[in-house]
Every structure is written in structure tokens, then in C-alpha cells.
Design a protein that fits this description.
heterodimer, A: 238 residues, alpha/beta, 3-stranded antiparallel β-sheet, 10 helices, globular, B: 256 residues, mainly alpha, ABC transporter involved in vitamin B12 uptake, BtuC
């Protein structure tokens, strides 16, 4: 395959403004099939906004070109808590199928399969979405996103609230998905260790693109200091 | 015999109105639009007034005003940062003022509180057809609507358009209120929409059970209300709503 054929996403001079406020300015990068791109940056750097622009949820300037007919799965940071909506986990999955209220064995089998691939037992299906722990909810959101086998997964990592052991296995899980399904992963990360360990490309963002490339080369100490400020060093060292 | 026929006509029209309203009401409640719905129902008034002046069926005047207000609310909400209740509140005060000027006094009472006994065969046919249509369309819309309420970004990520689901929902809701005006009146139509859903929410353990309970409660409270109103010669609207309130109080003991 030539480079061009492997390319799955091409972003050129992407800018986003809300009113007079510029959130993202002239961002360019590209993603190839089976890449693991980590997007890092301080709070308010525009990472989630970048995701929303990539998925065409918000207006932007510049070019975002996905490969034709590419299927994208999206894992948001969290769901807004809507206690008034008594949605079960099963129903949450069925919102993706055409048969919300009738038995659809085929999709239920796929749901159980996807839950297994994120290490969750099928008996979670009868629980209410609102009663899940954050770790469980994150896994449910991941399996929701990969149901129907998208080629690309956009993963917006939660900033806090998931225990370290749980977090570790989420990354392993993503890595496994990538290996087994050749899935392309674009992930907003808050943990530089993850970037060094799993990502083959990194994009540092703080309104503008501050660095881009392979983590070992792009993420120098100088860059990290520029991105997060002086006291961010322990991130890198531990 | 004539009375029996009239009673059947009232009962069937009432049940079909409740069918559509109580299903929509479930979404109204989870979308936290309960008061919005209540207020929207009053937008019908000037439509009724105009229709009476032009000697056409008030339901059509009401429907026109409601649909325009629903669309206007959607459009203004999309273009500004104003919350729906503020926009509908504005529509409401404007239309209430207009309504009081336009609707003659004796008819005003009827539009506000309805008069089931004035229902004719033709009205019943319209109510049955329109309610069945609203019910089916709401069922078809329910998947998109639910995901748009639960997680708008996820809805967009699989190609749904939350803003269009919301518009379709508002228009269906406006139509269902128009249908209820003859039956129980614009003031109490909001309550017929919300009451079954708030009671159902206390029993429900899933979306499916919530929608089913809501519709069943809507049907039972309408049925019981109409029976009581016929037996004791009460106006049907208030009888239906008071029955619903009793349901709600019972449901509080079942809150899971």
C-alpha cells in the first residue's frame, strides 16, 4: 500500500472559533490506518473541541478529510447524568439498532461479544445506566462505540475518577482492539506514560500545534515544559 | 340510546387523545420540559379565538398557532442562547393577551377547560386518526429522541440529527395538544400529558417499562375520569386530571 492509500484522516489548517474567541488555530496532522495518535495538552487546550470538529459537530475553517465511507466510533469523556431517564444498559445499546422495543437476537449477541472484549459480564445489561460506576460506564461507552466495528475510534479520556488499575487495563484493552481489529485510535490523553507506551504519534496542543510526530522525538523535555509548565516534570519521570 | 352513543364517542375520543399525549409526556418529562408543555398549551388560545371569529373549527386555529409556536420556539432556541421555557413563556404571554381579546367570554371557558359533550362523530374520527398517527410517529422517533436526550454527541456520532428529532417532537406535541382542546381544554391538556409520565417514572425500571406504564396510566385515568364525570355530571377535564393526581400520589409509595 502506498502512503496515500493507508491515509485515513488528513487535517489541514483547522481553526475553530467560538464568537471572538479562537479555540484552535491552524492545526494540521494526518493519521494512517492502524495508527495510535495521542492528543495531549493542558486543560482548555481545545482537545475535545478538536474531536468535535473532526466529527463535524461544530463549524470550523480549514480541511478535515476522512477516507470515504469511514466508520467512526466515539467514546466521550462522560455522559451527562440524567437520572430522570430510566435507561438500562441493554436499551442504551439497542438505541443503536433499529429494534429498540423488540427482541433482536443478532444485535444482543454482538453486544455481549463487545462487552466481553472490554471485560464486562453480560449481566450488566439489565442494570440502569445511571447506577454504573465510572469505570463500568467507561467500558460500556467503549463497547457501545466499537459495536458495529468502526475502523476508527475517537477516545476522549476522562480526566479523573477512574482508579489506576482500571485505567491500566483500559489501555491494554484499546491496544488489544488495535492489534486484533487493525483499528485506528485517536485518543485524548492526560497521561504521558500512556503516550510513550502505546502511541506511535503524538500531537501536542495548546490552541496551536506545539509538537507533532513520534513520541520519543516530538515529546522532548523542552516541549513538555512548554506545554504544561515547569512542574509537569514528574509526569515524564515516574 | 343517543346518550349511550354520545358516551362511547366521548370515551373513544378521550382514550385516543390520552394515548398520544401520555406517550409524548414521557419524553416531555425526561427532557425536563414539563412546564414548557403546560405553557405551550395556552398558545392555542388566540388560534381558537381567530377560528371562532372566522367560523371555522377552533381545533384548526389552535393547531396552527401551536405548530407555529413550536417551530418558533425551536428556531429561536437554535439561534439564541435562550432556554426553551423563556421563549415559550414569551410566546405564552403574548398569545394569552391576544387570546383574551379574541376569544368571547363564554367560549373562553370552554377552550380553557374543554367540553367533551360537544364532541361529534366527525371530531371523533379526526381525533382517532390524528392520535394514531402521533402515537406511531413518536414510537418511530423514540430511538433518536432518547439518544439525543441521553447523549447528543453520541447521537450525532451515529448520524442522528438531535435538533431535527427535537423539532419533530415539538410539532407532534403541539398537534397532540390541539387535539385535546375540545376534550379537556388547553389548561388541563398539559396535565394529561405530564401526569401519566410522572406517575410512570416512579414505577419504571427501564425505558420500555416507563413508556408502557405512562400510556397505561394515561388510558386508565382518562377512562376513570370520564366514567366519574358521566356518573356525577362533572366536567370531564377536571375529573380526568384529579384521577391522575390520585395515581400520582399512589405512585409515590412505589418509588424504587
Amino acid at each position: 500500500m502506498t502512503d496515500n492509500q493507508k491515509n485515513i484522516l488528513e487535517v489541514r489548517d483547522l481553526s475553530v472559533s467560538f464568537g471572538n474567541q479562537e479555540i484552535l488555530k491552524d492545526i494540521s496532522f494526518s493519521v494512517n490506518e492502524s495508527d495510535f495518535l495521542a492528543i495531549i495538552g493542558p486543560n482548555g487546550a481545545g482537545k475535545t473541541v478538536l474531536f468535535r470538529a473532526l466529527m463535524d459537530f461544530i463549524p470550523y475553517d480549514g480541511n478535515v478529510k476522512w477516507r470515504t465511507n469511514v466508520k467512526i466510533g466515539y467514546v466521550p469523556q462522560k455522559l451527562m447524568e440524567k437520572a430522570e431517564l430510566p435507561l438500562t444498559v441493554k436499551e442504551f445499546f439497542l438505541l443503536k439498532s433499529k429494534n429498540l422495543f423488540f427482541k433482536d437476537k443478532q444485535i444482543l449477541n454482538s453486544v455481549v461479544h463487545e462487552l466481553k472484549s472490554v471485560d464486562i459480564d453480560a449481566n450488566i445489561l439489565d442494570r440502569q445506566l445511571i447506577n454504573l460506576s465510572r469505570g463500568e460506564l467507561q467500558r460500556v461507552l467503549i463497547s457501545w462505540a466499537i459495536l458495529g466495528h468502526p475502523q476508527v475510534l475517537l477516545f476522549d479520556e476522562p480526566t479523573a475518577g477512574i482508579d489506576i488499575a482500571g485505567e491500566e487495563s483500559v489501555y491494554n484493552m484499546l491496544h488489544k482492539l488495535q492489534d486484533e481489529r487493525g483499528m485506528t485510535i485517536i485518543m485524548i490523553s492526560h497521561d504521558l506514560n500512556v503516550v510513550y507506551r502505546y502511541a506511535n504519534n503524538v500531537l501536542c496542543l495548546n490552541k496551536e500545534r506545539l509538537c507533532y510526530g513520534e513520541p520519543e522525538r516530538a515529546l522532548t523535555n523542552e516541549q513538555i515544559k512548554r506545554l504544561y509548565g515547569e512542574n509537569a516534570f514528574y509526569h515524564h519521570l515516574h | 340510546m343517543a346518550i349511550d352513543n354520545q358516551f362511547l364517542l366521548i370515551l373513544i375520543s378521550g382514550l385516543f387523545t390520552a394515548l398520544a399525549a401520555s406517550l409524548l409526556g414521557a419524553f416531555i418529562v425526561v427532557k425536563r420540559m414539563a412546564l414548557v408543555g403546560d405553557v405551550l398549551s395556552h398558545v392555542a388560545l388566540p388560534g381558537i379565538g381567530l377560528a371562532l371569529m372566522l367560523s371555522i373549527d377552533p381545533v384548526y386555529g389552535a393547531a396552527t398557532f401551536l405548530l407555529v409556536a413550536a417551530f418558533g420556539t425551536w428556531l429561536i432556541e437554535k439561534k439564541t442562547a435562550l432556554p426553551p421555557e423563556a421563549i415559550i413563556g414569551t410566546f405564552f404571554t403574548a398569545t394569552l393577551a391576544l387570546g383574551v381579546i379574541l376569544v368571547p367570554n363564554e367560549e373562553l371557558f370552554e377552550s380553557l377547560f374543554g367540553n367533551l359533550f360537544a364532541i361529534k362523530k366527525f371530531d371523533a374520527v379526526i381525533i382517532i386518526m390524528a392520535s394514531s398517527m402521533i402515537f406511531s410517529l413518536t414510537m418511530l422517533l423514540s430511538r433518536r429522541l432518547t439518544l439525543s436526550i441521553a447523549a447528543p454527541d453520541l447521537a450525532k456520532s451515529i448520524g442522528f440529527r438531535p435538533d431535527f428529532s427535537y423539532l419533530a417532537f415539538l410539532l407532534l406535541f403541539a398537534l397532540s395538544i390541539a387535539l385535546g382542546i375540545k376534550l379537556i381544554g388547553s389548561v388541563l391538556m398539559g396535565a394529561l400529558t405530564i401526569l401519566p409520565a410522572v406517575s410512570a417514572r416512579n414505577f419504571a425500571w427501564s425505558l420500555k417499562s416507563f413508556l408502557i406504564f405512562s400510556v397505561i396510566f394515561g388510558l386508565i385515568m382518562t377512562f376513570t375520569g370520564i366514567l366519574i364525570s358521566t356518573a356525577f355530571n362533572f366536567p370531564p377535564g377536571p375529573a380526568i386530571i384529579l384521577t391522575g393526581i390520585i395515581f400520582f400520589i399512589i405512585s409515590l409509595f412505589f418509588k424504587n
